[in-house]
Design a protein that fits this description.
single chain; mainly alpha; 2 domains; Ribosomal_uS13_bac-type; tRNA binding
């Protein structure tokens, strides 16, 4: 089992698909990594040599922010918005949609299950 950026990537999958299991690497970045390191995209992870796995690991460390560092950066950005008290920060603080979605109806994923209001019958 190959371990890259603290993640055990699946061995039976093709290399670009397996790299997307790392937080911060999507399909486009996975293709970029494969082309930069001259790794055939049809190869499986269990067919890679130790040198190729090491090259992938070093390339990711040098060029991408992944996993824990990325999560920390995103949470710090959200915390900064909340501390500023800007509109987006207030929406984060209240657990409401941040990007302009309507909340009169919908937004149940963000707001949670509907709460019954007493005295609303009739």
């Amino acid at each position: 089992m190959a371990r890259i950026a603290g993640v055990n990537i699946p061995t039976a999958k093709r290399v670009p698909i397996a790299l997307t299991y790392i937080t911060g690497i999507g399909p486009h970045n996975a293709d970029t990594i494969c082309t930069a390191l001259n790794i055939d995209q049809s190869r499986r992870v269990n067919q890679l040599t130790d040198a190729e796995v090491l090259a992938i690991r070093e390339y990711i460390d040098a060029n991408f922010t992944v996993e824990g560092d990325l999560r920390r950066e995103v949470s710090m950005n959200i915390k900064r918005l909340m501390d500023l008290g800007c509109y987006r920060g207030l929406r984060h603080r209240k657990n409401l949609p941040v990007r302009g979605q309507r909340t009169h109806t919908n937004a149940r994923t963000r707001k949670g299950p509907a709460k019954a209001i007493a005295g609303k019958k009739k």
